[in-house]
Amino acid sequence: MSKPCLSKLRMAAILLALAAPTSLRAEATKVEPEEHPIQFEWSFAGVMGRYDLAQLKRGFKIFREVCSSCHSMQLVAFRSLGGAGGLGYSEEEVKTLAASYKIKDGPNDKGEYFERPGRPSDYFPSPFANEQAARTALNGGYPPDMSVLAKARGYHRGFPTFLLDALPGLSYQEAGVDYIASLLQGYRDAPSGMTIPDGQFYNVYMPGRRIGMVPPLADGAVTYDDGAPQTVSQYAKDVSAFLMWAAEPHLDQRKSIGRGVLVFLAVFAVLLYFVKREIWSNVDH
Amino acid sequence: MSGPSKYTPKSAFARWLEKRLPILSFMYDSFVAYPTPKNLNYLWTFGAILFFMLIAQIVTGVVLAMHYTAETTLAFDSVERIMRDVNWGMFLRYAHANGASLFFFAAYIHMFRGLYYGSYKSPREVLWILGVIIFLLMMATGFLGYVLPWGQMSFWAATVITNLFSAIPVVGNAIKTWLLGGYSVDNATLNRFYALHYLMPFVIFAVVAIHVWALHVTGQNNPTGVEVKSVERETVPFTPYATFKDAVGIGVILVLYAWLTFFAPNYLGHPDNYIPANPLSTPPHIVPEWYFLPFYAILRAIPNKLAGVVALFASVLILAALPWLDTSKVKSARYRPLFRVFFWVFVGVCVALGYLGAQPPEGAFLIAARLCSAWYFLHLLVILPLLGKFERTQPEPASIEASIAAQTAALKEVAHV
Hints:
The structure holds 2 protein chains of 2 kinds.
Chain A: H1 2-19, H2 21-24, H3 53-65, H4 91-99, E1 102-105, E2 114-117, H5 131-137, H6 149-152, H7 161-164, H8 175-183, E3 201-202, E4 210-211, H9 232-247, H10 251-280
Antiparallel strand pairs in A: 1-2, 3-4
Chain B: H1 12-20, H2 23-31, E1 35-37, H3 46-65, H4 75-84, H5 89-116, H6 125-147, H7 152-164, H8 172-180, H9 187-218, H10 231-234, E2 235-237, H11 238-263, H12 293-301, H13 305-317, H14 322-325, H15 337-357, H16 363-390, H17 400-416
Antiparallel strand pairs in B: 1-2
Helix pairs in contact in B: 3-5, 3-9, 3-11, 4-5, 5-6, 5-11, 6-7, 6-9, 12-13, 12-15, 12-16, 15-16
């Protein structure tokens, strides 16, 4: 029943987008545009960048204690917390950590589904059984999965900044984490004249400036044991760094191999040039 | 440039094979002895760069295919599994995605080089048309590949592009349904797109072989646009001269390739494609990969859907008619002062269309896109034919040899001062 309806709806959307492009965004322009995210300092930015493991561990603590009550992270396995490209946990620590989660498994030889303690090979279990359960529990909202969230977010850099973002030295690849870290600190009192519906909040970095997520962080809400300041701004940065790791656990490896590859290829290209020059030295061209 | 082979088999096995399948002499004549004009500049290395990129795409692609699952509920996760768990998977995928970008980047330079030096003119019309066919196949392959990760942009790009076919009168909707394997983009679509994405590169490879064949019949054009008059004095053998010059070009491109793959792997992508495909949620802006943006801008610049689709296809197909649209007898822009100006304006318009394709089609952006689209067609359909008739060209050099001699003399003059 719903299928034909759906495709008609989609068709209408596309026809609108193709045939009458000017009308498409008329509605959106009514709301004040969101603010540009803050650009933070990230240890993993730039050519020499690598994750700060202490920061990732703090961010992981926030994920466990705060985010994971609503957000899933189903593409990340417990095993990836240890070993190369992990957060620096030992094999034992990963086992203990995994065992602290309950994982649905089955059917067993009696044909029943059951719960068992997690193993390192398991993936982070989701807080809700399905989308409908999440929407029912959360006032209609459906929190996005956090596995690749840091790569699934960004913001428009504008001309000519977006061109500079690709250049060595100026390279900027952290739009996603900057957006998330800003958003987490972007809650304000709504300006007078703007009505915020129940269950929504005013956030200056959210497109449309309205967000369904309850302000998740408060000063002192999560206890750090490494002496880092327990403030919202610190929490926001730490958890965003953790999300970047979750989205790309092998970033350190990528950059360190990349440096070697780049140096090799640059030298190789220069050598090729000199060979070519030698070969052509007796030809007028 | 063909003639009796210069190859003499040296070993007994080579002599034996040569009598049965003259593949060694063929390779020797094509890639060792093949005469290339002495005066080629580095823009002529892009053919080799493109061949290298094609092979790089096939190699990374075949390995990726061993780990990818073409099923709507598994595709997105299987790509993430490649990124996280497959040995070297992250590098393969980033190299493949950015390789496509570099492939198109190199193709655009290759094409603009052809435009600037009039490489499509007699006797190279067939060579040029084969190039346009390769470009079309590349576009199809790139689009099909973009759908496979099954993110939001994958899904909606597939929806928008296949929906273009429904603009065809009478049979449009039937064609669309046939392409999709259903009434909307779904599992059947993903499966066939995967099959075709795997097939296309080999079709490209075959057409590239014919493209190179045609090239080796007519010989390369050169910056003067004057044909080779003396093979002995004006050309050098492909190996080692062109081989090593091409290697330098490939070497430089490899540095760029590695930079993108290792340090800015998502720069050319869209964040929305890291959101799993959702048929119920349309992204606010559906944008294709950067290399399609100029054509996308043309599509959206035209208020009528059918006309927009026609303009989109015409903007690519019209390139095949260039050898006849450009009426000038002089090939190289070096001796065509007016054409040179129009050429750079045309390049500017194409780049501007690329920028506008990424912007929302409204207000000043839309007006600019319309003006640029109009200029695109005006340049190809009106300016080029008229220029050939009215432009006062400068004298071409008598030969490549004369041109090189004049340049060397000029260089010596500068050195004396």
